[in-house]
Every structure is written in C-alpha cells, then in structure tokens.
From TrEMBL:
Source organism (scientific name): Hyphomonas johnsonii MHS-2
Keywords from the named record: Membrane, Transmembrane, Transmembrane helix
GO biological process: response to toxic substance
Transmembrane segments annotated in the record for this chain: 7-27, 55-80, 92-116, 128-147, 176-195, 201-221
Protein name: DUF1648 domain-containing protein
Length: 237
C-alpha cells in the first residue's frame, strides 16, 4: 500500500470513529417514543420531525457515506490511467482527502449536538451551523492552496477536455482556480459569521460555483493558446 493512501485511511478511520461515537451518543439521548427533530433551519431550530427509527437511520447514514467516500478515495489512484500523476501530486490528494473527512466529521458531530439540544429543549442557536459552514469554507481554502500542485488526472482537479489534453492548460487553469477557491473560501468564512438567517451559506455556495465555472471557461482559452494542445504528455513539471 502506498504511504499516502495509508495516511488517508488512518485519518478516515479516526474521523469515522468520531462520527460513530457521536451517533451512538445521539441515539442514547433520543426519547423512546414520539417524534424526533431531524431537520433544522440556519438558527438550529427544528423544522421537520420524524420517528425515532427514521432519525437513527438518517444520522447513521453519515458515517456510512464517509466510509464509502474513503473506499473510493483509496482505490481511485489505482484505477486512474494517470495514477502516477496522482502519486506525484500526493500532497494535494491527501490534503483534500483529509479535509473532506474532517468536514464530514464536524458536520456529523454538529448535527448530533443540534438534535440532542433540541430534544432537551435547549436550541443550539446558529453557532454550530456557522461553525460547519466555516469548516467548509476552510476546506475550499485548503483545496485552493493545493490545486496548483496537482498533476493531470481523471480524479482530482479541474478536469475538462482542454486541461486533460494540454499540460500547459492544466497548469494555467489550476493556478487561476487555486486563487479563486482561496478567495471563495475566505469570503465564505467571513460570511459564516457576519451574515444572519440563511445568508451565511449563500456566499460560499455562490462564490465556489462561480470559481468552478470561471475555471472551466478559462481552461478552454488556456488550451487555445497552449503550444502543446495537440501533444500533451499528461504530466506537468
């Protein structure tokens, strides 16, 4: 097993263990009968209820989904025809992998805390929700930092017909995409704490989608001006 895959698996195991622990704690706090809150607004106030069984099923799916994501990330480099490029950019791969797992763990723990507080009659307020949004924003900052360090692959990065057929287009696109996602993450992080209602999540979603769209469009123009657009090697640097 490649060392960076092992690192990702260790982090995943730790985060999934935290998620399972949070879900077990949440299940123990649920009432035996009656409806249970399963959905909350941006202030942490319940706005949908379900049975105890459905609540357990919903929250148990979070560590299960994380385990599936872990398996996909662990085997993806061996399935990618350009897997050696992922090996070369392994720091970026591990950073994104670990960042995703940390955010999933924080979202799971935060959601369980909100539910338990609601069951106990003490609404969590917007603090936990803001924290989850801020964590997502920091993930985008981390992704933006590592995007310029990636190498052409079918798994990670801005994968368009133009970036995959030109190393120069890949480099230029990911330098721009890195800056855009860092900016989106920083503004999203700020918005998580200064905006109210549903608005804290809006800047992060809107800016990240804009960053992705601009990167895709730019990749075409970078390809048009690239000297290797007809004979890219699939590997930069």
């Amino acid at each position: 097993m490649k060392p960076y895959i092992r690192t990702g698996l260790i982090w995943s195991a730790l985060m999934i263990a935290i998620m399972v622990g949070a879900v077990v704690w949440m299940v123990d706090a649920l009432p035996k009968d009656g409806p249970v809150p399963v959905h909350f607004d941006m202030e942490g106030t319940p706005n949908r209820y379900a049975s105890r069984f459905e609540a357990i099923l919903i929250f148990s799916s979070l560590p299960a989904i994380s385990a599936i994501v872990t398996v996909i990330l662990a085997i993806a480099p061996s399935l990618d025809p350009r897997g050696t490029n992922i090996d070369a950019g392994r720091k970026a791969y591990v950073a994104v992998w670990v960042g995703v797992m940390i955010v999933l763990a924080l979202a799971t723990v935060g959601s369980c805390m909100i539910l338990v507080n609601a069951v106990n009659g003490t609404p969590a307020g917007p603090g936990i929700v803001r924290g989850i949004i801020a964590a997502c924003a920091l993930l985008f900052v981390a992704m933006g930092n590592y995007l310029p360090k990636t190498r052409p692959s079918f798994i990670l990065g801005v994968r368009t017909p133009w970036t995959l057929s030109s190393d120069i287009a890949w480099e230029k696109t990911h330098r721009l995409a890195g800056r855009l996602f860092i900016g989106a993450g920083l503004l999203g992080f700020l918005g998580a704490f200064v905006l109210d209602g549903i608005w804290p999540v809006v800047p992060l979603v809107a800016l990240s989608m804009t960053a992705a769209l601009v990167s895709v469009i730019y990749s075409y123009f970078a390809w048009r001006s690239a000297d290797d657009r007809d004979n890219g090697t699939g590997r930069t640097g």
